[in-house]
Automatic annotation (TrEMBL):
It comes from Tieghemiomyces parasiticus. The keyword ATP-binding does not apply. InterPro entries: CAP_dom, CAP_sf. The keyword Cell division does not apply. Residues 32-136 form the SCP domain. This is SCP domain-containing protein. Gene3D superfamilies: CAP. Residues 1-23 form the signal peptide. Keywords: Signal.
Amino acid sequence: MMRSGLLTLAVSALVLAIGTTHAAPLDSYRMLSLVNDARQSAGEQPVKLTLVLNEDAYHHSNYQASLGAVTHDDSHGSGSERLSEEGVHLGYWSENVAYTHGDEDEAFRTWMNSPGHRKNILSSAATHMGISEVKGYWTQVFAQL
């Protein structure tokens, strides 16, 4: 009985720890796959998913959701400014934002159909990516770390 109680406590603690990160949606690897497939087709190197960019993307998606509007502006500065304040050194930075209640495929299609967003996705300068969605507000961050 004591052992099952400890197991329940350990599992509960793990679920709480995972559930409170909010850094990336559950299928962030689906978006990574879509991005890297497009990059490969364009002759570009794949990007890697990274926690610091996921956290920045989450911050911005949450900010957009709190406003109820899609925006690149943020009361805490641009993503590159926020990351610099946290000590992250960037060689390149870009951001895609969108509003859709669709899945990763729909958000990706929306961005790929926009020349500016497509350019960010396919940029040869990007080495890393972060992604998040909060209440339909999507943020995709690319950087060279």
